[in-house]
Each structure stands twice: as C-alpha cells, then as structure tokens.
Amino acid sequence: MQTNEKVEIIRLATGPQEPINEYRRFAILVLGSFGCIVCSFSYAWNLISGTMQQRYDLTQRDLSTVVTVGLVVQYCVLPYAFLYDYLGPLPISILSTVYFALGTLLLALCFMDKVEGSVVRLCVFNAMMATGCALLDLTSCITVLSHFPTNRGPVTALLKTFTGLGSAIVACLYTGYFDSNAEKHFFFLFSMGIVVGILCIAFIRLPPYHLTQYEERSLSDEVKERRLATKAQYLRQEAPLRRFVLGFIILVVLIIFVPTQSALVSYLKLGKAPKVAFAIVTTVLTLLYLLVAAPLPFLNSSHIPIFNRAYSKRDARGDADSRDSTEPLGLEEAQIRKYHAPGEGQQRGNNAKGLPYDAAAVAETLDDERGAVASAELETEIDYLAPQYQGSFIHNLTTLEIWALWWTMFTVVGAEFVIIFNARFILVALQSAPVSESLSTMLTVLNGVGSAVGRLMMSFFEVWSQKRKAEDRVPITIALFFPTSSIIISIMLFLVLPAAALPLPYIVAALGNGFLAGVAILVTRTIFAKDPAKHYHFCFTASMLASLVFNRFLYGEWYTVQADKQARADKMCYGKKCVMMPVLRQEVRNDA
Questions:
Q1: Between these two residues, 575 and 203, which has the higher pLDDT value?
Q2: pLDDT in tens, 274-322
Q3: pLDDT tier, 11 (very low <50, low <70, confident <90, very high otherwise)
Q4: What is the DSSP letter of 472?
Q5: pLDDT confidence tier of residue 345, bands split at 50, 70 and 90
Q6: Whole-angstrom distance, CA of residue 254 vs CA of residue 158
Q7: What residue spans define the domains of the chain?
Q8: Which residues partner with 336 through β-bridges?
Q9: Strand ranges, E, within 315-366
Q10: Which residue ranges does UniProt annotate as crossing the membrane (predicted)?
Q11: Which of 23, 27, 441, 468 could form a disulfide with 472 if both were Cys (CB 3.0 to 4.6 A apart)?
Q12: CATH number of the structural domain 18-229+239-308+390-591
C-alpha cells in the first residue's frame, strides 16, 4: 500500500541528565488513579435510578433523557481537549472540580427536597457532574501517561481499571455507609470530588519534555531544546517494577473482594452490620493503594525474586553493542526526516500497530547515519516507542485510520450504553419481575469489576504486543476486534439465557466496555504522536452520538411506548418485547 507519510526518526540527547524522582512520578500516578475513581461515579447510575424514578414519577423516556443528556455533555469534551493541548492540565483541573462539585451538590439538594426536581433540572445537574468526570479523566490519563512514556500498558491498567472499579467501590460504600440513601451518597461524592480536584490543581503537571502549544510559541529555542532533551531520561529510566506489582496486587484483591461481598449481600439478604464491615474493608483496601507512592527505597527496584528479570530495551541494546562495535556515545538530539516520493509504490513495513512506516526507508536512513558518524551509537525513539503518525489532529481528520477507529467506537458504545445504563429495566423486562435494590447494586458492582478486568486485559495486551523489537510487534489495532465480539456475544446471551443467568451477559458487556476504554486511550496514544488530548477525545464524540441515537431514541422511545401499552402503575414494562427490537437492532449493527 502506497503512503505519503514521512518517516521521522528522533535521536535522543546524550550526556548526563538528572534522574527522575520516582516518588514524585508515582505520587502523580496514585493521584491520577484516585481521579479515575471519581471519573467512574457517572457509571454508578443504577444505584439511584430507581429512587429517582419513584421520587419524581418518571417514565423510562424521562430517565433515558436524563442519562442521555449527561452522556452527550460528558463526551462532548473535544473543545476542552484543545484547551488542554494549548495550556496544559491546570485549567482543566479547575473546571473539572467546579463542574463535578456543583453537579453533585445540586443533585444532593434535589433528593433533600431543597431544590425542586424536574426532568430539565435533573438533566442539567447530571450533565454538570458528568462533565466534571470527563474533564478529570482528561487531566488524569493524558498527563500521567506522559510521565511514563515507556510504560503505557501498566499505567493504563492502573488508571483505567480504577475507572471501571470505582463504580463497584462506590456501590459497596453506598449500601454499607449510606444505607442506600441517595442524598448522603451525593454528599460523599461531592466531598471526594473536592479533595481530589484540589490535589489535581496543586500537583498534576506535564513533564518538562511535553511542551504545550503556548509554550512552543512563547519559550526561547534554548529553553525548548533543553526541555525536549529531558525526554531521553524519561525513555531510558525504567520505572521500578515493584511499585507496579504492588498496585496490581491491591487491584486484584479489590476485583475479587468487591463482587464477592456484593453477591453475598444480594443472595444471603445480609443485614446492616455485614454491609458496614464490607464497606470498611473496601475502604482500607482502596487506601492501601497509597503505598504505591510511599517513599520507601526498597520499592525503587525492578528485582522481584519470584519473577525472571525482564529483558529490557537497554539490555537488548547492550547485547547489540557487544556484537556490533565499541562506538562511544556522543550525539546531540537531531531529527532525520525522509519523505516517500509519490508513485514509488513502497510497501508498509509490518511494524508496530500497522502504521504506514517503510521499514526499508528507515533501515536505509539508519545505515546512512551510522556511516556518517562511525564514532557514535545511534539511539533513537524507535528503540523505545513504535513509529507514529506525525501529523496534527486537523491533518489526521482527513485520513481513513482515525475514522475507522471512530466508527468502531460508535457501533460498540451504543450497545454498551443501552445495557449498562438501563440494566435494572432490561432485567425487569426479561424476567417479568421487579429487581431488588441488592440485585441492582450487584449489577453495578459486576459492571465495575467487569469493566476493570476488561481494562486490565487491554493493558496487558499492549505490554505483550509492544514490548518487542520493532519488527516483531503486533499491530495494536487488532485489539478493536475484542469489544466488538464481546457485545455481540452479550446480546445473544441476553436473548437465550433464563432469568437467573442474566447477570452473565451483563458481565460480558462490561468486559467489552472496559476493553474498549483501554483501546481508546492506548491506541490513540500509540499511533498518533501529536495532540494527544484531541485524538483521545475525538473518540468520545462517537460515544456522544451513540448515546443520543441508541440510548435516547432507539431504546428509550421503544421501551416507553411498550410500557404505555401495558399501563402499569410503576411505569415498568414486562416481557421480552419491551427490549427485543432495540437489542436485535444493535446486534445486527455490530455484526455488520
């Protein structure tokens, strides 16, 4: 396949550089993880949807309107991505704190009857909270990943798993501490959002080498060169493995404990005391995650006796040096650019992520450079990172690749949102019986845990596929097939399983949702070199449109019409016909 994309090889700066402070770097990771927990609050809708419906006598059309408005506003954050790329995370942190705190406070006042609730007001308040969640996700994920350029998989696993697991953690606290009281629940969210938001405002900053557009225009060439040179240290200095392992151990314990306690509460009809005990244990386990950034010297090591030592890129280069030559280091940072001439018919190399990068052209460039400077070792970004599209976001909008990613997000997310945000009502329809509060809470927990596991799976796939030699890497875009397959399987299971087994397809959908969340951040950060916030949040425009088309109009209207025909006092709809048409429609779309 012919390509006009340029091959850009960036040689890393040499010479001594100040080591990265791992305590500070992992403190930013921990803070970003707690920011992701706050981001997950918008996914805990099932906890209060039943209470909201009963308090305000809402129809399914009204509820889907509240949900959809929140989702549309939440995912319409591309303008904020432009602000992030121009000024950095500080203004986004401020806006996220204000939006989230105000939205949760107003919702709490609604449930206290201090503010009169209506569909319009609930839409506005929920949208404010959801926007705060989305902006905090932007601040946390994009910024933290910049501090770990060679550890995107493990970092995304920790961040995005907490985004998925956060709703499950909140569901546990909801039944334990707050006894399913919505107003106390929202005051808790308000307090946590304020604390995490203020900490993000104070401490979340980009690393020196990541220049904002404002800095690129305002800083002198000397300052920019000095800051860009620090990227070499971020690429060469490997983050201590022990801290990552500690974080994963805590995550795995939470992933096992939270659904187990939820199942016990739901099926054994446990009382208040066990619920409080479970909530306390969940709180302690979550706070233990702070140890990942603890100033303990023994954690600043990658040596773990039960594991074989990882074969790092530095080890690989050292072996190559011993076989090849004894060339000393000594080149300053430079860029080598080569353009493909139209009509040459050069083929894409079978490189990382299937990018349009000509392996022969790169090899020729490197050979020429070695011949020109025989006294220096050539160390480039490709030794650490796969080749990337070098175009700006505006340029990439004219390419097929970004629109293929957008279409996948649109088709899969539409089905996922219908299942996740309407789980209570779908189960009522399929089992033709009401859903208890404990079962509703368990569904929220299953969604959180399934989403967390899906995000872990995607992150491990990134590590497995990208921590290889450039010529052996597996295209990361292959990961897009998993969430598509999972949602197809989930819908099929919803249609054929008996009522007692209906949580199973919900788990499958949650796995796909979590995997897709990992795809959105990892694929965009891996294949696009510039404007990371814009590329990441462009995918969310697909989520925004999908929630409007499929959740509000396809599902919401159909369910309400069927419920009106039954004319039940609780405005519920019983029977598969209540959800059959929208579910089958989404099955056909994903198969296509």
A1: 203
A2: 888 999 999 999 999 999 999 988 888 877 766 544 444 444 444 444 3
A3: low
A4: G
A5: very low
A6: 12
A7: 18-229+239-308+390-591, 313-383
A8: 9
A9: 334-338
A10: 26-45, 66-84, 90-111, 123-145, 157-174, 186-206, 244-264, 276-298, 404-427, 439-458, 478-497, 504-523, 535-555
A11: 468
A12: 1.20.1250.20
- What pTM was computed for the model? 0.72
Contact between residue 22 and residue 148 where contact means Cβ atoms under 8 Å apart? no
CA distance 140 to 144: 6
3-state secondary structure of 191: helix
Q: What's the residue count for the chain? A: 592
Return the bridge partners of 389, or none. Answer: 528
The predicted-structure confidence for 229-251, as pLDDT tens digits, reads as follows 888 888 888 889 899 999 999 99
Q: For 330, left (φ over 0), alpha (ψ -120 to 50), or beta? A: left
Among 590, 589, 558, smallest CA distance to 429 is for 558
Tokens of 426: 């779908």
Alpha-helical runs (H) found in 356-436? 359-372, 393-396, 400-421, 423-431
CA proximity to 105, closest of 192, 198, 186, 39: 186
Task: Judge contact between 224 and 211, C-beta under 8 A.
Answer: yes
Whether the CB-CB separation of 496 and 504 falls below 8 Å is answered with no
For residue 11, the surrounding DSSP H or E stretch is: strand 7-11
Rounded CA-CA distance 245/313 in Å is 20
- Alpha carbon distance 95, 90 (integer Å): 9
Q: Are 381 and 408 in contact (CB under 8 A)?
A: no
| 548 pLDDT tier (thresholds 50, 70, 90) | confident
Residue from 481, 458, 476 nearest 466 by CA: 476
Structure token pair of residue 84: 């992030």
Cα gap 424→434, rounded to integer Å: 9
CB 509 within 8 A of CB 420: yes
